Structures
1.
Amino acid sequence: MNGSLGGLVGEVQGARSGIGGHCQGARMAPSILWIALAVTCLKLLLVPSYHSTDFEVHRNWLAITHSLPVKQWYLDETSPWTLDYPPLFAWFQKLLALPAPLVDPLIVDVKKGLEYDAPMAVLYMRATVMLSDVLLFFAVHNYACSLPASKRALAAGAVIFSPGLIMVDHIHFQYNGVLLGLLILSIGLIKSGRDVLGGVLFASLLCSKHLFMVAGPVYFVYLLRHYCRGPRKFVRFVVLAASVLSVIGAAFGPFVYYKQIPQVMLRLFPFGRGLTHAYWAPNAWALYNSADKVMSVVARKMGLRVAERAGALTGGLVGESGGHVVLPEVTPLLTALLVLLSLLPCLVRIWRNPRPSEFLRCVAYSYLCGFMFGWHVHEKAILTAVVPLALLAVESPEEAGRYFFLSTVAHFSLLPLLFEPREYPIKVLLTALYCLATSACLQDHFSGSSDNPQSSEPKTANLMSAKSPDRSEVTSGWPEHDAQVSGGEGTEARKQGLLTWLERGYLIGLVFVELYASWVHPALLGGKLPFLPLMLVSTYCALGIAYAWVLQLRLVARTPSKQSMQ
Amino acid sequence: MFARFLGSLARQNVAVEFVFLLAILVRLLVGLSSYSGAGNPPTFGDYEAQRHWMEITLHTPVREWYSETPQNNLTYWGLDYPPLTAYQSYLHGLFVSAFEPEAVGLESSRGYETPSSKLLMRWTVLLSDVLVFFPAAWWFVRAYYGGRSGTEQAWALSILLLQPASLLVDHGHFQYNCISLGFALAAAAAIIQEYEVVGSVLFCLSLNHKQMSMYLAPAFFAHLLGRSFQKRRPLLHVIKLGVIVIATFAVLWAPYLSSAEAVLQVFSRLAPLKRGLWEDHVANFWCTTSMLPVRAFKWKKRLSVEAAARLAGATTVTACLPFMWNEIRRPSKQGLIRGMLISGLAFFLFSFQVHEKSILLPLLPATMLALDSPWVVQWLAPIAAFSMFPLLVRDGQALTYVASQVLYLLIANPPPSGLGDSCVWFRLAFPASLIGVVVIHLGALFLEPPAQYPYLKAAAMTSYGFVHFVLLVLYLNKKVFTSRTQLERTLEKKES
């Protein structure tokens, strides 16, 4: 960013470099501000787009927290969308509701505001999501400051432009940006050695959305082994425990006082939900369900008598996935044990050697485990693993390849979330542009030329000349542009690209899956077998995410090599 | 930042693809907003006009499209663009009726607006843009900036494709300027590559889509004439181009060539003399000066329509003559585009019956000059969109306007290179002028105008734009006669 605007921006931002006091804020701030403004423009343009029932859910929560006393928050049942997030999130909603009456008092009216979505109300609600994303920008800025200068903007862009976040928060309507911001801020603080503050932030994250609980063991073991050591380890432990418990106490205290804890817990952990959600999140259970379906069909073909269950095959479409026909039933306890088991290698590694530099990976890995094996996982939960991993992608070409693969599959698996024809091209383009931009920028970064961004295209000259003859003639006039091959960390990546041929083939397969699910299937079969497209998407993506999980597991389980010790 | 990002993409050979996809995405996003005259019976707005033309062209015979018939009531959005617009409406009508025939049913579909038909209509604009303007933009960038780096070309392309005023008028307000502007752009690209015949045909297509393309005609005329004089047989060359132009017109007007009466009927629809010197609030000379408290400037009161038309014609021609003279003597590629900019601005400022949307015509050559004079387009595009704000806010597009303006400002910084002209005072004046824009917006948002001046807000916006346009046209005229760009010098050095 050059020119007067950039200068202006630089001055303004230089003044407040934030928590990350070690950062040269002045250099980083203009690019993060640019990214933040650009993404906010896209979000503003998305204001009139489709919003799901989650819009009404959150509007209702704004109304409940604004208009009712705290005592009523978890009791009110005026709307079917009762408050089912932990108390800190309710307070956050109350904060967002404060200025609402100035815009339109109906927004925060518990009774008259039901199903209210006048354009100004939508704008107000959307604006609260955009504004709360400032925490994400700040957290990413804070984290990116710990990276080498050439990697910062890339890491920040990879997180902030995540099409998953844009689709889920700014079209579908949720507040994941601010929550992930809290998570990244906490990880960034722990990475820079501020363990207590990081722990406190994580506790407040848990008190805002309990789905982030999966990383609890990682935090616990890390803080225990990294912070509570040395001669005064007991004192340190007490300090840590006191600060974390005080956050939890502050959040839940009022409800202990009102004797409502059982009611709150009932809301937070509703029983009676199935193993998988309506649209199967692409995890181990999607594979398990598909295997069950295939086996039951095969068994029937072979003449075996299999229990006929209405809706068993349409499990991908209707609410509860009716029980399994061939394979044994899965219980919540089993899923919890599997999650813990899959976390175990990671916990052992942290126990042996808690390293700040590996903390981010461990947290992201734990969310990936939670996604793979958790009970009743929503497809949106993949963002908790993908978004933090974006920050790792800039570390090495291998990391970049792993991130690109996982993020592409994950974002693809989120596409069915937006099903209206108007948003169809928008969601596809958002995802395609992100894939194009991340793959090109990561590839370019590891080709070694990005440390010198001003000298443009050493490679274009070569590659383009092979493609179009007139371009070579054109570029030959600029001697400084001619091949200036610099080696460095990524020569290998440059030779073979970020992905293996198998990974590439799989990702190209996504295009065919999408073509089938959105075009061929409706054209050929019309309304028949309506579950098939979603089942196909979910199963195919589950393979990719399982593969990505195995890669992460191998990294976490591997004995640390000498190189990574440094 | 954007230029650096494009640099990364260009090194991986995906910059152009990225810019095209981004441009499509932004168009779709702008299209989510409301459009001109949405839910506003009985006459609605431009959206209804375009839909109505689809209905008329689809269901009535070609000969009757421009005439008053029982089925074609000309007082209700009668067709008032040349035949290519009518053919385009016919094609789009076919497209829409393939999915939702009720949307273009004869008579029955007046004021038809459903979410699905809105989507279809938006898609007709998007497809026209992608099929006409996008290739034209790429052709032009390759033809004119072929010697520049991939980053610079991609940046020039993104300026052409993401300039906010066109986005908002075509994909928000609802029009098909992308077609006429796209043909004009392709014509310039062809002529730059010395395909003069092709260029002439393309420019005739542009003229036959919207007569407003005439704003750019003096530049094409002067450039082609100047080029002809450099040929061995100038007269023959001029005649050749003349024949091509006439032939193109003849083909496009073929259904109406049966009688002079039929031609005149179409013609009378295209030149609505009755509608006065300007419309609504326009940032041009006549509208702005008439607001001054000087009796001599109360044009609409003092001049008859004919006298106003004559005066407007004379001033426009006078404003165009200097650059035309220069271009005829020394035609150059850059002279063509600069000429388009000057004549576009001259027509916008002085000609008869100007709409606020006509600023798109000078804006096109300004965006074409993106790498030659980056500061011109960096400045002109946001000001042009600003001068249309009264119109946009009526359409319910204030939010879309803010987002696309900021997005444009974020990408408008050119890639670092020493090849464009620089403008020293730009660095100071540009932020100051943007602050002025913000101040006027805030004032309009929070203050109410006094009762005796109900149009003060719109007047402030258009006058602010007017000052910028006048300064720019004066500066450009000076530039035409004094300097060559560094690029020209570099290229000359290379050639010698």
2.
Amino acid sequence: MICKAALPSETYAQKAQRTLAAHGYRAEIVRRTDRREGCSFLVRTAGDCERIHQLLIREGVPVRTVAMERDGP
Amino acid sequence: MIVNFDNAATTWPKPPAVRLAVEKAVARCGSAGRGGHPLAARGSAVMYAAREAAAGLFGAAPEHVVLTMNCTHALNLAIQGIAAGGGHVLISDLEHNSVLRPVYAMAKAGRLRYSIVPVSPSDEETAAAFARAVRPDTRAVICTLCSNVTGQLLPWRAIGALCRERGLCFIADGAQVCGTRPVSLADGIHILCTAGHKGLYGITGTGLLVTDGQFPLPPLLHGGSGSASNLPEMPPFLPDALEAGTPAIIGAASLTAGIRFVQAHGMAHIFSHETALCEHLIERLRQIPSVRIYREAGAQYAPIVSFNIGEMSSEDAAAALAERGFCLRAGLHCAPLAHRKLGSGGTVRFSPSVFSRMEDTDRLADAVASLAART
């Protein structure tokens, strides 16, 4: 299962990537452009979305949305 | 041979690891946060590494580390940001123009009122003077942690405690202590502004604003941030809100390497090495009757020594020392308040770094003695 978490900025994407790495997740940062916000970022990692969401929130990363890959963020 | 004793302006030489980091960043990085391709990704990683390094050093969250052009830029962000709400602020009588001028400009425009608090050799008296100067409309204390002229340390933990107790924002200018003394937001500082190119050994063009986020600041510059691009205004989150335009990635790489260099050597070791050089110079200069050293009993000092040679102007003395290969700064050091307090029209300032050597300090003392003998 691939989870995608949407973050507001590159800094938060970097923070999310390092936070996930510290908990054993290997995550990649993907840049995206959406119609509402414009430029923003995703971290993409294998794992349970709910668990990843909770982990990031707990570590102070302001996750916008999380979604499994097939759903899109 | 050039010997740099003007490290309070900028440290020179830079550590080999800093020079290497610069070279590597130039060779490998594109812009940061502006694309998803590998060159941009490397740039972004470099920027975040600098935030993480500074956050670790000063006890902040990485996203609360704003990379600026220099300490003056950081102080302007903080001071003009706080001034946007009006009210009254306190500054000390040892401030650099990087604090005095933005405060004065805001006051001149009718947006802020300010009082200047006298710093005493006694930390207790200084802290009490700040406490007495607080008024009902006081919103912030903006002060240096260390005079860039004399090296006198201010009791910033006591000032931080006062600010916490009275609900004031404490904006600290750490340019002359960061890298030699432990400074942390846990000391009661809400917004720490510092240079990246002095005691942190990064290259010129680097500075930091480190905040606990309790006092949000509006942007000074508006422009691209690589985030929330559909908004017509700067993003509402840090650090993007205060970082418009392409960031200084090369500088950020140098800053990370510089901070790691400081951590590897240990701040206590750096402080004690530089202090030993200052004490040795003072001991030598005290043997020259016409030399005046600007230090007061009871005060605490960072490794900076200001002096004058008889009636010789500080600029003439520094020029004569430069002819002998020694780089020292003369004049007002952009700190007219401090010189007014000292009653001096300028001093010669000795400021060593971790690379400075005792034998060069001795040679400098010999050179001062020889100049003094001519006056």
